[in-house]
Automatic annotation (TrEMBL):
Domain named Glycosyltransferase 2-like: residues: 7-141
Protein name: Glycosyltransferase 2-like domain-containing protein
Domain of life: Bacteria
SUPFAM superfamilies: Nucleotide-diphospho-sugar transferases
Length: 345
């Protein structure tokens, strides 16, 4: 394969002022054998006309509309996959940008590492134009922890636009969860790692850009916090059921208890005691209650240490310190949480 076709798939909703920049960054690629599949999610502004003007400029851009439920970026991405023909796939949001040589570099590396399933590259945040903020997404690699453990505890090593997939490998994943309100990208990457897909990271200069700190409508915006938490719980449950044997083989059970713990606290803080109990009792279904650290977190919940007070604050820190020293994972504190890095380029 000397000149593979690359499919860039973009879901879009009410992005008349931003999507032209995204499409221009694709049109300006030095690598020419690409197709750009834009799937509109029911825009009510001038997004459609904006895209059609770009189509007149470059026939490689194709526009589709979501004509089935549910609404959302995941459905649009799946529609994009169904209508794409590329050997490789890149997913962008409708306000992301690509560096001019992004696809060329990614394809070149796939030619060198043709037996890999997906490759991961650095991306950089910007506000109005690339270079005005230089917010690196994260360190792609850390010497003392694996990527799957980082995803599991919320230290997200890479973003969706950072990845180029082989079509065959992405299809093994099963596509995007159209019912989920959030965490679809988390699920995609976790499943890929648990399935043992072969990947390689390239911790060099960023080749793509994500927009930060804007007030535009987002296709993935969630208004209802309770619905968002329900969706997170469903995603965590789905990943466990799909990969239980591999999770146990890799000794990752503590991370799933960690998410059940966090979600239980969030529900309690919203006054959803019954739902919090349902989430936490999932530990019994998965037989995680047999782990010694279950007692620690169970006591934390039952004694109400999650409630804010002068007394509970030091107890939280003490219990978190104890858990981290033994388990190497934080259950409340944020020392291992995702932190973006400002960089000088």
């Amino acid at each position: 394969m000397t000149n593979p076709l690359v499919s860039i798939i973009i879901p879009s909703f009410n992005r008349e002022t931003l999507i032209s920049e995204t499409l221009d960054s694709v049109i300006n690629q030095t690598y020419e054998n690409w197709e750009c599949i834009v799937v509109d999610d029911g825009s009510t502004d001038d997004t459609i006309n904006t895209i059609e003007r770009r189509i007149k400029k470059d026939f490689r851009i194709k526009l589709f509309s979501r004509e089935r439920s549910p609404k959302g970026a995941s459905t649009c991405r799946n529609i994009g996959i169904e209508n794409s023909k590329g050997d490789y796939i890149i997913f962008l949001d409708s306000d992301d940008l690509l560096k001019d040589d992004c696809i060329a570099i990614r394809v070149s590396n796939f030619m060198k590492y043709s037996d890999y399933d997906f490759l991961v590259f650095n991306c950089l945040g910007f506000k109005s134009s690339p270079g005005d903020f230089n917010l690196k997404w994260n360190h792609l690699t850390k010497s003392n922890i694996s990527p799957i453990e980082r995803f599991m505890q919320g230290d997200t090593p890479w973003a969706t636009l950072s990845v180029i997939w082989s079509r065959e490998a992405f299809n093994i994943n099963g596509g995007w969860d159209e019912e989920a309100l959030c965490w679809q990208d988390w699920e995609i990457h976790i499943n890929s790692l648990l399935l043992g897909l072969k990947f390689k990271t390239f911790d060099n200069s960023p080749d793509s850009y994500f927009r930060v700190d804007h007030q535009f409508d987002s296709i993935g915006k969630i208004e209802n916090t309770k619905k968002q938490l329900f969706s997170r719980y469903k995603i965590v449950t789905k990943v466990w059921k799909k990969n239980e044997m591999q999770i146990k083989s890799l000794k990752l059970e503590k991370f799933f208890m960690l998410w059940l713990f966090r979600l239980s606290i969030f529900f309690l803080e919203l006054g959803e005691k019954q739902k919090a109990e349902e989430v936490w009792n999932t530990n019994y279904k998965w037989k995680l209650n047999r782990k010694w650290y279950f007692k620690l977190w169970d006591s934390y919940l039952k004694l109400g240490y999650y409630k804010r007070s002068k007394i509970n604050a030091p107890l939280k820190k003490m219990m978190d310190y104890t858990a981290y020293r033994i388990l190497k994972v934080h259950f409340w504190d944020t020392k291992n949480s995702f932190k973006k890095i400002l960089v000088e380029l």
